[in-house]
Automatic annotation (TrEMBL):
Organism of derivation: Kwoniella pini CBS 10737
Database matches in SMART domains: FF, WW
WW domain residues: 11-38, 52-78
GO cellular component: U1 snRNP; U2-type prespliceosome
Name of the protein this chain belongs to: WW domain-containing protein
Length: 716
């Protein structure tokens, strides 16, 4: 009997119902999806050390890189190099063994015991990398665990002809005969097989190592196919028997496992005779069938309950505003739900789904009704606005409405009209908005007519001025023969518009002249400080005139009364300073500063109030101002204001400097008083606290003043 491998593998390969391969250990009963290491080929072992993993999809292998997640159907280049390297190493080892046994004198005769001993010693050194050799024929039968081997047909003998086989098919058949004769089965690896058959002359029937390995794989596959067919035949015979056992047992459910089945059928003869994987496969098939049947029944019951509940919910008092909790109470308390036991098994999530679908349908119907209502309201509001516009047109034709008319003036005439009352409370523009739009249209119409009329008169050499009367305008229109182009009402409103703009421009110019006059007076008052040492406060204006007549600010003031007013203000201010200096010992400088600041703020507020009132008057007459004239005038104003802006900044800076000098004088006077008190020894704790507080304020004032002066210098 041919020797068997040194160690029989305890792993066996199986295929589940889905066609996926797995391996089971005979002793530990462990099942794994990946091929065990002891069954892997040298290339598979080398592949496990790389980042690539091999998988199968529909009997087609593909490769996945675990690091980069790259997937390929074809063998990657690095794996190709690895495979070639492994095959070359296998071929070199085989060639080394062939050189040991391949001498001509030994292959042409039967080996002697000395030859066999010599060959074995040489082969032991050559096959050292493969590990322990398979057992020899001299081992004890008790130590050999011979796997089941395929039998060679009786009477069939194949020998190696001189010079080898002429046909490759014959050579492959001879190599397979060798494998059968040596008892090679699916539990043998290629390494173990080569150790067993390498010394046989038929080993050289095939030339290359790849051809020998291909024949080995073909032989192994034929054995596996035969055993698989036998196994399938056994399973097909056991399946009806086991199915009958499972159906008659109350313990086998859709969730039962092999542990439960072994406990239930431990005494059954057929169950004990069947192999473990056969029992597991048939049980798995039966359990899967039970699961599918239960799922089908559950699906049918669920569909039936959904349909029943959909019909039921439409008969209940559920509206678009009904919440889920109220709807759930209505469903559960209905007579149909209480009488139907199958409907009571419905899941809550399914009830919510039915309610959601029905509520969405109600929302769609509600939105459609709301949309129709909105369309009706919009149509009603549009008709009401058109009617109110027609009412305004009628009032205008009657002469009670023009561009200067206010809403409160026409309200008594429209408040009882149906067209006005029909518009109240509707969406969109209200009566006041439509009235303002109508007034704006009238203003635009009058402005266009005014431009057209002015162009026509300019061709005749005529121009409407402030002193032009309406009668003169009428005569100009008749002379130009354009009275048919403008109605009498339009000509009157055009005249009022143009005349109002001209009047507004004249008032603006007067106001600007007054502002410039005040500025020139202030400039002269501050300029008098430059020659203040030559002017005695007891001098009259005529006596001080020689000292200030050469000042540029004096020449800018053309009115003699304005010059006198500036001189009087200067004298008054200087006298106030003298009085403050004289009364510093008896009065509080802080109070005097506060009074002076209050007076200055009062003057500024008075000027601001006057300017604000003038701006309000100008804003009230906005309808009577023309855009072109305002643009030209604003440009003139900006140019003139720009020229005087520097003088204004200088004047404000002089004011601030004067205030700072006064503040420093008051602090100096206060310090002198404290020094005198300290010399007398009358300084108490309270006075010391006030002195420290005053010093902190002076330091804060100086730092603020320094920052302010820096900013002003930067601006200059």
């Amino acid at each position: 009997m041919p020797p068997s491998p040194a160690k029989k593998s305890l792993w066996s390969e199986y295929t589940n119902s889905e066609g996926r391969k797995y391996w089971s250990h005979a002793t530990t009963k462990q099942s794994v999806w990946e091929k065990p290491d002891e069954l892997k080929t040298p290339f598979e072992k080398a592949l496990a050390k790389t980042q690539w993993k091999q998988y199968t999809s529909k009997d087609r292998p593909y490769y996945v890189n675990t690091a980069t997640k790259e997937t390929k159907w074809d063998l990657p280049a690095e794996l190709k190099e690895l495979k070639e390297k492994v095959e070359k190493e296998e071929e070199k080892r085989a060639q080394g063994l062939e050189r040991i046994i391949g001498s001509p004198d030994r292959s042409s005769r039967s080996p002697t015991p000395e030859d066999i001993r010599e060959l074995r010693e040489a082969a032991a050194h050559a096959l050292a990398p493969y590990g322990k050799l398979p057992p020899s024929s001299t081992d004890s039968p008790a130590k050999i665990e011979a796997p089941p081997t395929p039998k060679v047909p009786a009477g069939e003998v194949i020998v190696m002809p001189p010079g080898g086989f002429a046909e490759k098919s014959k050579a492959e058949e001879a190599f397979i005969y060798l494998l059968k004769r040596e008892g090679i089965n699916e539990q043998w690896t290629w390494d173990q097989t080569m150790r067993q058959i390498i010394m046989d002359p038929l080993y050289k029937a095939l030339d290359t190592l790849a051809e020998k390995k291909g024949a080995f794989e073909k032989h192994i596959n034929s054995i596996l196919d035969a055993r698989r067919q036998v196994k399938q035949l056994r399973i097909s015979k056991l399946r009806p028997v086991f199915h009958k056992l499972f159906s008659n047992s109350v313990h086998i459910k859709s969730y039962s496992t092999m542990k439960t089945a072994d406990q239930v059928f431990a005494n059954n003869k057929y169950w004990r005779e069947a192999q473990f994987d056969e029992r597991a496969l048939i049980l798995e098939e039966y359990v899967d069938d039970l699961k599918r049947m239960e799922q089908a029944n559950e699906k049918g019951l669920r569909d039936r309950n959904l349909k029943t509940l959909s019909d039921l919910i439409r008969t209940l008092d559920i509206s678009v505003s009904t919440r889920w909790r109220a709807a759930h109470d209505l469903i559960v308390s209905s007579a149909t739900f209480k009488q139907d036991t199958d409907l009571q098994k419905i899941e809550t999530i399914d009830m919510i789904q039915v309610y959601d679908v029905y509520s969405r349908q109600l929302e769609i119907e509600h939105e459609e009704e709301s949309k129709k209502l909105r369309i009706d309201n919009v149509r009603k509001a549009r008709k009401a606005r058109e009617g109110f516009k027609a009412l305004l047109t009628e009032i205008q034709e009657q002469g009670h409405l023009n561009r200067l008319t206010k809403f409160k003036e026409i309200y008594p005439k429209i408040k009882v009209d149906e067209r006005y009352n029909a518009l109240l409370g509707l969406q969109g523009s209200n009566p006041l908005d439509l009235f303002m739009d109508h007034i704006d249209d009238l203003n635009e119409e009058i402005e266009r007519s005014a431009e057209k009329l002015q162009r026509a008169l300019s061709k005749e050499g005529k121009e409407i001025k402030l002193e032009t009367t309406f009668e003169e305008l009428e005569e100009w229109v008749k002379d130009a023969k354009i009275e048919n182009q403008f109605e009498g009402r339009v000509r009157k409103e055009v005249y009022d518009l143009v005349h109002g703009k001209l009047q507004q421009a004249a008032e603006d110019e007067t106001r600007r002249n007054e502002r410039r006059r005040r500025h020139r007076i202030d400039d002269l008052r501050y300029a008098l400080k430059k020659v203040g040492r030559h002017i005695d406060l007891e001098m009259t204006y005529e006596e001080a005139l020689p000292h200030m007549k050469d000042l540029p600010e004096f020449k800018d003031v053309t009115d003699e009364e304005d010059r006198k007013a500036a001189f009087d203000k200067f004298v008054k201010r200087q006298k106030e300073k003298l009085r403050e200096a004289e009364s510093s010992e008896h009065g509080s400088t802080r109070d005097r500063d506060r009074d002076r600041d209050r007076e200055d703020r009062h003057d500024r507020d008075r000027h601001r109030e006057k300017d604000r009132s003038e701006r309000d008057k100008q804003k009230d007459r906005r309808y009577s101002s023309t855009r072109d004239m305002e643009k030209d005038e604003s440009m003139d104003i900006d140019e003139k204001e720009h020229k005087s802006s520097r003088k204004d900044r200088e004047r404000e800076r002089d004011k601030e400097k004067e205030k700072e000098r006064d503040r420093r004088d008051s602090h100096r006077d206060r310090d002198r008083e404290r020094d005198r008190d300290r010399k007398r020894g009358s300084v108490g704790p309270e006075e010391k606290d006030r002195e420290r507080e005053s010093k902190r304020r002076r330091m804060s004032s100086n730092s603020d003043r320094k920052g302010k002066d820096d900013v002003e210098e930067g601006e200059i």
